[in-house]
Amino acid sequence: MSSKKPTEAEITQQATQKIGELESEVEEHKLVIDSIKPLEADRKCFRMVGGVLVERTVKEVLPALETNFNGIQQVIQQLLQSYKRKEQEFQQFQKEHKIQVVSKQ
After folding, report:
1. Hey, where are the domains in the chain?
2. Are 40 and 76 in contact (CB under 8 A)?
3. 41 neighbors 58 (Cβ within 8 angstroms)
4. Torsion angle (degrees, nearest 10) of CA 98, 11, 89, 71
């Protein structure tokens, strides 16, 4: 059985999709953080952990949400930097080999 190595285009497409998914997750985290931040710290709060809904308090959940939010933002920035670097490498390759993109109209 041979495993097929993904092409640069496939990798780029996967990175773009992952960035979109992570941006959606960041928005969801932001909405939840904004919703529970003004609440009392000892108020009951529910959180999904590994497919199980668990009861916690706002003061227990909020720091975890903020940590996840910041972590996801960092991953997005790293993916965007990697994507931009690949894009620049591709443009440089096009220049070096005098490749011009022709679009069908």
Report:
1. 9-92
2. no
3. yes
4. 160
Find tokens 């809904």 and name the residue: 53
**What pLDDT, in 10s, does the model give residues 32-87?**
999 999 999 999 999 988 999 999 999 999 999 999 999 999 999 998 998 888 88
CATH class of 9-92: mainly alpha
Under 8 Å between Cβ of 58 and 36? yes
| Chain position carrying tokens 């591709």 | 90
Q: Which two tokens stand for residue 1?
A: 């059985």
Q: Which residues pair with 49 in a beta bridge?
A: 52
**pTM of the predicted model as reported, rounded to 2 decimal places:** 0.77
